[in-house]
Design a protein that fits this description.
The protein has nine helices and eleven strands. By secondary structure, the chain is α/β, with parallel strands linked by helices.
Length: 222
């Protein structure tokens, strides 16, 4: 049996989550104030309703306490986002994920008990920016304010060298946690592992160290 999710706010972010969860067979309740958005998801989500989630009575009538995880993806109305999160917390929801508009919004959400706060536009901007640096940088995922995990394609500067030769940990402060070679993934590779051109390295570390690693070793000169 699939887990039960409620998605509040069916804009680009909330709508995308709703579609993906539904595609994976999860039970999804889609909620928005706008009738046109709710109608769009009637044949996608398990249920789609027009509702004001800043009203505690409405949330109770929706049976929101029965859901494992509630995603608050309200667009530009920060007040509604905060009030909805507060109501959900008071109703004892197990897990609440909230989309933040800015750092101030995030601070408030953390103070009132949101379990996970996301900045989809900011985070996607960072990932796109890193991918623009070089064709070798495939992905960049923020783990916290200071740490990330990067997926990089080995270029000419790494080709034919072992992890000992490169000594990435000592030289750049990063750790190579896995190497993808075509369809195979080598987790915790040995120090004498030879890196071939186009192998993909999964690297974890502080943002400043990953940035130095990318600039000095990953990015091939044109």
């Amino acid at each position: 049996m699939g887990r039960e999710f409620a998605v509040i706010g069916l804009g680009r972010f909330g709508g995308s989550i709703c579609r993906e969860l539904s595609k994976e067979g999860m039970h999804v309740l889609a909620i928005d104030l706008a009738e046109d958005k709710v109608n769009e998801f009637k044949n996608i989500a398990s249920h789609a309703v027009i509702a004001d989630t800043t009203d505690e009575k409405v949330l109770k009538e929706l049976g929101i306490r029965n859901f494992d995880h509630v995603i608050v993806a309200i667009g530009d109305n920060i007040q509604s986002s905060i009030l909805t999160t507060l109501m959900l917390k008071e109703l004892g929801i197990n897990k609440i994920t909230v989309k933040a508009q800015n750092d101030y919004h995030e601070k408030v959400l953390n103070k009132i008990g949101a379990d996970h706060v996301v900045h989809p536009e900011r985070d996607m901007g960072k990932r796109i920016a890193h991918s623009m640096i070089s064709n070798n940088i495939l992905d960049h995922l923020e783990l916290s304010d200071e740490y990330s995990i990067a997926e990089v394609k080995a270029g000419s500067k790494m080709s034919g060298k072992t992890l000992i030769d490169l000594d990435i940990r000592a030289n750049y402060g990063c750790n190579v946690v896995a190497i993808k070679q075509e369809k195979n993934i080598n987790v915790s590779p040995m120090p004498d592992e030879v890196i071939d051109h186009d192998d993909v390295l999964i690297v974890i570390g502080a943002d400043k160290d990953i940035s130095r690693f990318e600039k000095q070793l990953v990015v091939d000169e044109d």
